[in-house]
User: What shape does this take?
Amino acid sequence: KAGVTQTPRYLIKTRGQQVTLSCSPISGHRSVSWYQQTPGQGLQFLFEYFSETQRNKGNFPGRFSGRQFSNSRSEMNVSTLELGDSALYLCASSLAGVINEKLFFGSGTQLSVL
Amino acid sequence: AQSVAQPEDQVNVAEGNPLTVKCTYSVSGNPYLFWYVQYPNRGLQFLLKYITGDNLVKGSYGFEAEFNKSQTSFHLKKPSALVSDSALYFCAVRDANAGKSTFGDGTTLTVKP
Assistant: This one.
């Protein structure tokens, strides 16, 4: 079974641009969540989608948005990029997003904002 | 709000020695606790979880964790460390809303030969 796939692996953007990151969960998994990982802030929850609906949202500005498609694939968009958005963005999937489920993570997208 | 603390940024042990990576938590209600490991340039991998039942949980790669309700701790342990165990370890608690996990800041484990 293929794991969680995130594309692209690396991205370099300049301030003010926008970016779209993609995540394909493990086949059959319907819950997809996104995390931002930085050396100073650790892992911060962005949002979680289940069956194309956003169920949970973290404390990030509205520049960060996401969506989920009917095949459970998810995209995350960041508009008007700032230098502080440079981070590793991790996607995780689970079957139903219930409390006792472990998360399966992708390798992440490393975003650098110049 | 729930939270997780990993009091040590770095843990250094010699190969063959036992290791402990510490984690304490704060939740309202029953805790659902997880340990994940991250190798360089990779995503996180699940090691083990505590949901209910035995306080000693066994997981992947010979790791185990001890749940202590009175001390609100969930320390990760291994009887004999390997150089290949060197990585970044995260403790996490699952939110009652289930879709969100709160992670500790991570502990870098270095095992020296």
In short: The mean pLDDT of chain B is 93.
